[in-house]
Automatic annotation (TrEMBL):
Annotated organism of origin: Tianweitania populi
Pfam family, one: Peptidase_S9_N
GO molecular function: serine-type endopeptidase activity
Domain Peptidase S9A N-terminal: start-end pairs: 19-420
Protein family membership: Belongs to the peptidase S9A family.
Keyword annotations from UniProtKB, A to Z: Hydrolase, Protease, Serine protease
Protein's name in the database: Oligopeptidase B
GO BP: any one term: proteolysis
SUPFAM superfamilies, sorted: alpha/beta-Hydrolases (SSF53474), Peptidase/esterase 'gauge' domain (SSF50993)
Domain Peptidase S9 prolyl oligopeptidase catalytic residue range list: 480-697
């Protein structure tokens, strides 16, 4: 492969200030620690408050990456137009019925933000309830939170964030005249749940450290300053959420970290009721509630049910002692979610790495499954807004098959295709091949790898490859249809997803064997996937571009240290790379709730040493790093901007290669990047242009 040619531009220099920290008798020095703004809480609310010295450095990084990628401007524009051409710009959802209306969302030609509408139940004229483009006008950043109509269908509760910091404001709109009420509720988690009487709502409020720790009740027509606190969680290691049930009978407060959960419930028609504890938290025990008329259904891993089971309990007293097993635990079959209806219980499960939907008739216990035959595919359970129904909604796609939306009659077992994703610029599934490989890991485990490539691509080792991975929090990356990656595949790329440990792709044990002391498995699995793709002739190491974001960005940093020669380039988006420093900083929003995932290095020397052994920033060394692109957002509360800023500077200092390390920071966005659907495509086009450049494909169109 011809080595990519980048302009001869000198990267920014960065100030260095002495700083050290001693824990468990171990001293770390970090002369880049000053890039962490002491007033980060204020900066999230108002980015103009950023320390001028820090801003100057970030602007220098922006100038550098702009110059280094200047020659890809035409390519980025071409990629953007291609990806935009695959989007039906005036697309709309299939409305979902609820009472006298059906609710849905849509986009207009050229629109960045969604609109929310409703029609009469059986169809008719659309009424626009909320126009996202109108609300976003004249804002550098705008992201809609939850949008929810009231049980009486007269009001709309909606949230928005206009900084990227995920401090959402909530507003109530009168649907008779389309006007928002004067009251505004600030600093929320972005959504709320209505009272049964539609006269108020419950929501979570974020504290000074950006944690949802309290639940409040807001009565319509009053000031947010007078809102009554319903519940407060005093342990900073737990996050709080609030939700309702499909029949509007119960309000449920969930308290959870990554391995333990607890619920408190109270009637949705009594805002003054004291929340009632269902089952007290037990470290490692998780459970979710689903209301089912006279019972609650409980999805739980209690009693050693590692891949979860379903239990039920009487609604009047659903304490742990009254739980009764309904669907037993089956090792290797991971139950992901449960939904209940008057006559049916439905759950989404994964077995042998593939999802399926199971429908159980409540009166008889008879079960049947909805499954598909492709090697790799994705299923989504959409459920219903109504409790008394025989019809549910689900989506299906594969890496070659555009998304299809079905209504499914649970009684007659009839599927009705409602919608197939349109690709306006054209898409022929027969032009593409999807495969599922099993890559042998160093310890003998087999790592699933989903592939997509053009039928005409030569599989002789010459094809470039984008290898994507995540591998944390039990999150599974589905093998679903992605129109964006076709811009690479049509240029001869193999697009691959490594289903590595740390996710739940092969069950809950797959997650457990990729966290805390076993975290190294996540990284070695990904490297094993890269090696297997080379061994099978799909690509070669200098043509593999690795990509991951957030915790997947940490993966990118780790594999760069462990196997820099295994990759021809690395794209790390909002990368969680300064793991040890962040886990030692208990003022940051996510740190205490993250300790079950990563370990607590403040109290545990063993956890400190385990994290220090892989934390990408702490393990940067004299290695021949490939070209690296890091992407971040200034107001990101999840992965703070200073992590990639420090990492990039340290990589440049220690790398033994002359490959560039670029840092692209969005000064007007947070963790999710740009907020509009087309603005987001511009960011994807930038990353893809980098991948094409480092593999020598930037001058080609197919």
């Amino acid at each position: 492969m011809t080595k990519p040619i980048f302009p001869a531009v000198t990267p920014p220099t960065v100030l260095r200030r002495p700083w050290s920290d001693t824990r468990h008798g171990i001293t770390r020095e970090d002369d880049l620690a000053w890039l962490r703004a002491d007033n980060w809480q204020d900066v999230f609310r108002d980015p103009t408050l950023l320390d001028p010295a820090i801003r100057t450095h970030l602007e220098a990084e922006t100038a550098y990456q702009t110059a280094m990628m200047a020659e890809t401007a035409a390519l980025r524009e071409a990629l953007f137009k291609e990806m935009r051409g695959r989007i039906k710009e005036d697309d709309q959802s299939v409305p979902m019925k609820d009472g006298p209306f059906a609710y849905g969302s849509s986009y207009v030609l050229g629109g960045e933000q969604p609109r929310y509408f409703r029609t009469p139940r059986e169809g008719g004229e659309q009424v626009i309830l909320l126009d996202g483009d109108k609300e976003a006008a004249d804002r550098a950043y705008f992201h809609l939170g939850g949008v929810d109509h009231s049980p009486d269908h007269n009001s709309l509760l909606w949230g928005y964030d206009d900084k990227g910091s995920e401090f959402y404001a909530l507003r109530v709109r009168n649907l008779d005249d389309g006007q928002d009420l004067d009251e505004l509720v600030p600093d929320t988690g972005g959504e709320g749940v209505w009272t049964a009487g539609s006269d108020g709502f419950f929501y979570t409020r974020l504290d000074a450290n950006h944690r949802p720790s309290r639940v409040f009740h807001h009565a319509i027509g009053t000031s947010a300053e007078t809102d009554r606190m319903i519940f407060e969680e005093e342990d900073p290691g737990f996050f709080v959420g609030v939700g309702g049930t499909r029949d509007n009978k119960w309000i449920m407060i969930s308290i959870h970290d990554h391995e333990t959960s607890e619920y408190r419930i109270f009637p949705a028609d009594d805002a003054s009721a004291e929340p009632k504890l269902v089952a007290a938290r037990e470290t490692g025990m998780q459970y979710d509630l689903e209301e089912g008329g006279d019972v609650f259904f409980i999805l739980t891993n209690a009693d050693g049910a590692k891949d979860f089971k379903i239990m039920e309990a009487p609604v009047e007293n659903p304490i742990r002692e009254n739980w009764r097993e309904l669907v037993p635990h089956e090792p290797g079959r991971l139950i992901l979610s449960v939904e209940s209806f008057r006559d049916f219980l439905v759950w989404l499960e994964r077995k042998d790495g593939l999802p399926r939907i199971v429908v159980r008739e409540r009166s008889t216990g008879e079960e049947h499954r909805i499954a598909f035959d492709e090697e790799a595919y994705s299923l989504g359970l959409g459920g219903s807004l109504e409790y008394d129904t025989d019809t549910i909604r689900f989506s299906y796609s594969s890496m070659t098959t555009p998304s299809q939306l079905f209504d499914y009659n649970m009684r007659t077992r009839e599927r009705t295709l409602l919608k197939t994703q349109e690709v306006p610029s054209g898409h022929n599934p027969d032009d593409y091949v999807t495969r599922r490989l099993m890559a042998p890991a160093p310890d003998g485990e087999l790592v699933p790898v989903s592939l997509l490539y053009h039928r005409d691509t030569k599989l002789d080792g010459s094809a470039p490859c984008l290898l994507y991975g995540y591998g944390s929090y039990g999150i599974t990356i589905p093998a679903s249809f992605n129109t964006n990656c076709l811009s690479l595949v049509d240029r001869g790329f193999v697009y691959a997803i490594a289903h590595i440990r740390g996710g739940k792709d092969k069950g809950y044990a797959w997650y457990e064997n990729g966290k805390r002391a076993a975290k190294q498995n996540t990284f070695t699995d990904f490297i094993a996937a890269a090696k297997h793709l080379v061994a099978e002739g799909y690509t070669s190491h200098d043509r593999i571009v690795a990509q991951g974001g957030s915790a997947g960005g940490m993966l990118m940093g780790a594999v760069a240290n462990l196997a820099p020669d295994a990759f021809g380039g690395i794209i790390a988006e909002v990368p969680f790379v300064d793991v040890l420093s962040t886990m030692l900083d208990d003022t940051l929003p996510l740190t205490p709730p993250e300790w079950p995932e990563w370990g607590n290095p403040i109290t545990s020397e063993a956890d400190y040493k385990a994290i220090a052994a892989y934390s990408p920033y702490d393990n940067v060394g004299a290695h021949p790093y490939p070209p690296i692109l890091a992407v971040a957002g200034l107001t990101d509360p999840r992965v703070t901007y200073w992590e990639p800023a420090k990492w990039v500077a340290r990589l440049r200092e220690h790398s033994t290669s002359d490959n560039p390390v670029l840092f692209r920071i969005n000064m007007d966005a947070g963790h999710a990047g740009a907020s509009g659907r087309f603005s987001r495509l511009e960011e994807i086009a930038y990353s893809y242009a980098f991948a094409l450049k480092v593999t020598g494909k930037d001058a080609t169109s197919g």
